[in-house]
Amino acid sequence: MDCRNSLQKIEQELQKHTNPSESVKVRKPLAGYPKNLPKVDICLVNAVGFHRNIAQPRAVVFTTSLYKINCILDERISQDDLEYQELIESKLLAQYKDLNNMFSKLASDILPLYHLYNHQIELEASRESLSFSPLHQ
């Protein structure tokens, strides 16, 4: 009796795991996909998905433009830069106050002007006296 009951239980368990309709498929995460990303509330969906999303009680529907986003980012950057400059002024020694603009984040983002060359090397000897020579003699 015990053997039959045990065999029946084993058969039932095996059928649970082999029946594809009852088994739950778990999606494996991608290998190179970061696991600790922040939750994103912005989505691009079709009309049916959009209608389903706006029907949710906590959903907020709005429109924006890249111009508005850039304006907000510029305001935040300028505020952060002002706070950073105040910190620099409070910690910078008196003899280095004239170099205050060296620590500006905005000034460091500007590239220098392009020049064909920045410095010309003037040779003291004539070109005829220069010749090939090994470096270690």
Radius of gyration: 35 Å
> Low-confidence parts, pLDDT < 50 over ≥5 residues?
none
Mean pLDDT: 76
Q: Outline the biggest β-sheet.
A: none
Question: How much of the residues is beta strand, in percent?
Answer: under 5%
Total count of helical runs of at least 4 residues: 4
Helix content: 40-55%
Q: Structural class of the secondary structure composition? A: mainly alpha
Please trace the helix and strand order, writing H or E for each element: HHHH
The N- and C-terminal alpha carbons lie at a distance of 99 Å
Number of strands: 0
Overall shape: elongated
Give an account of the 3D structure.
The protein is mainly α. It contains four helices and no strands. The chain has helices spanning 2-18, 47-54, 66-91, 105-108. The N and C termini lie far apart (99 Å). The relative contact order is 0.04.
Topology:
Layout: H1 2-18, H2 47-54, H3 66-91, H4 105-108
Question: What's the short story on this structure?
Answer:
This protein has 137 residues and is mainly alpha-helical.
Tags for this entry?
mainly alpha
